[in-house]
Amino acid sequence: MKTATRLAHAGRTPAAHHGMVNTPVYHASTVLFESLADFDASERDPFTGVHYGRLGTPTQFSFEAAVADIEGAHGCVSTCSGLAAIAIAILSVARAGAHILVADNVYGPTRKFCDGLLARYGVTAEYFDPLIAADELARYITPETCAVFVEAPGSLTFEIADVPGLAATAHAHGLTVIADNTWGTPLYFDSLAHGVDLSVHAATKYIVGHSDAMLGTISAVDETRYQGIRRTAIALGYCAGPDDVYLGARGLRTLGQRLPVHEANALALANWLAEQPGVARVIHPARADHPQHERWLRDFSGACGLFAVELAPIDRTRLAQLIDGLDFYGLGASWGGYESLVLPVDPSHSRSAKTWQTDGPLLRIHAGLEHIDDLVDDMAAGLARAGL
């Protein structure tokens, strides 16, 4: 089955819902049972079937089945945000006194979770340069190490770790490999085929695709790890809202049509920006000048709409002149929606294994689904306002 067909059909069972094309939204807390025998049976196995709203509804199970199908996973668990998915994935394998290895370019809240809540419960996170050679990872591994967490590329600085190489080293030492695959999406980076055991997505972004829902997913490579994430999510009380799950399922159907537009717009915009005198550098993995471009060609089948630009040195006032007058780029966190975004970022505050430094401001840009000519013209006017 081709990807486009799989996206259109995965997880859908119209016959089970009176012929409805889309699985309906089940708003539920209490679930009633026909008999005491049925209730007793559910108590014996509370992790399968529909027993209570927090434990899952047909809406949730349909969405999870679709994501698992697309990722080639044994199973998927959905939750209320991308960060919740990250926390569940890590907590499913961590224990008091454990040690986890984390790539230095991960999403900022991932680092805050590791250095905050995890540390409070006796789990130590150690950060490593995402660009180390795969065999160098072994020198960080201790008897207490349980997992390696990577994000490739990082969503601020866009380094691409050698995921299959790092995974091979991790597996040789019996470790679980967790990857935040939000940038690559299930379509452009087959994380499980590259050695990842738990593939995490902030489905809030490209899967939902419309900036109107909070959602996360974790896909597991096998039954044991699937049971680990499901039981952890249930123990913590994490569950995704039914309307958000429905929007995730709806967004999934058009992911294959939206992503190529994001990719084309971002690459065209990045190439144009690289030619502007006020731009010091463009950081986009699909461009030949990216330091890990060959690795991107090896491991990825496409690129999303997110990249970064370092401007020539300017003060905050001139940066505001650039940003505040933009018509088609919103100023806000997140990405993956239909709209374009721009966000000034400073990764230097969230690096410890490797320093990050720029001379001018760093802008993270998300290219939406607008016409590329409008995006270029708008940015050109912004650069002119800032005197770049």
From TrEMBL:
Question: Which Gene Ontology molecular-function terms are recorded?
Answer: cysteine-S-conjugate beta-lyase activity; pyridoxal phosphate binding
Q: Which UniProt keywords apply?
A: Lyase, Pyridoxal phosphate
Q: Which GO terms describe its biological process?
A: L-cysteine catabolic process to pyruvate; transsulfuration
**Pathway where it operates:** Amino-acid biosynthesis; L-methionine biosynthesis via de novo pathway; L-homocysteine from L-cystathionine: step 1/1
Cofactor(s) the protein requires to work: pyridoxal 5'-phosphate
- Keyword Lyase present in the record's keywords: the answer is yes
Q: Where does the record place the modification N6-(pyridoxal phosphate)lysine?
A: K205
What is the catalytic activity of this protein? L,L-cystathionine + H2O = L-homocysteine + pyruvate + NH4(+); an S-substituted L-cysteine + H2O = a thiol + pyruvate + NH4(+)
Protein family membership: Belongs to the trans-sulfuration enzymes family.
Name the chain's protein: Cystathionine beta-lyase
Q: What's the source species for this entry? A: Salinisphaera japonica YTM-1
Organism placement in taxonomy:
Bacteria, Pseudomonadati, Pseudomonadota, Gammaproteobacteria, Salinisphaerales
